[in-house]
Give the backbone structure.
Amino acid sequence: MPKYKRIANKFMLGSIFKEYHGPVIASREAFYLVVNVSAAAAMGGVVGGLVGVAIAGVLSGGKKEQTDVLDIDLAELHPDILRDPDWPIRQQTGRVILIPRGAIKKIKYPWWGSLDIQTAERRFSICPMVFYRGGVVRFLRENEWDV
């Protein structure tokens, strides 16, 4: 089983659900929402910025559970992630919204809609391809996500 899987190519966030295009990657530890360069300029800092020590646990593989959603540059991800043969994108620059497992309060994926992730401050709606739902559910369940 791969450690990372591209599960969608677009997502929405916020109360008005602004739509963004870019790869959505799932893993056992987190979801990575990569914002295409054209959307990154419009997005600005809508989620928040890098918070030094607060992200050390997720980015370096430490034991402390990360509970903050992060808006960082792809280059700031731990090199082990970017070099992993299972990492599904080769893009090295751009923004990524990192949603660690510890930040997720609720996750649901009904058979008729999008994968919804609720954190303490924001809701994310991930839109997998229509006929791809079975593969996404199987991967998430194998990685102990409750969907």
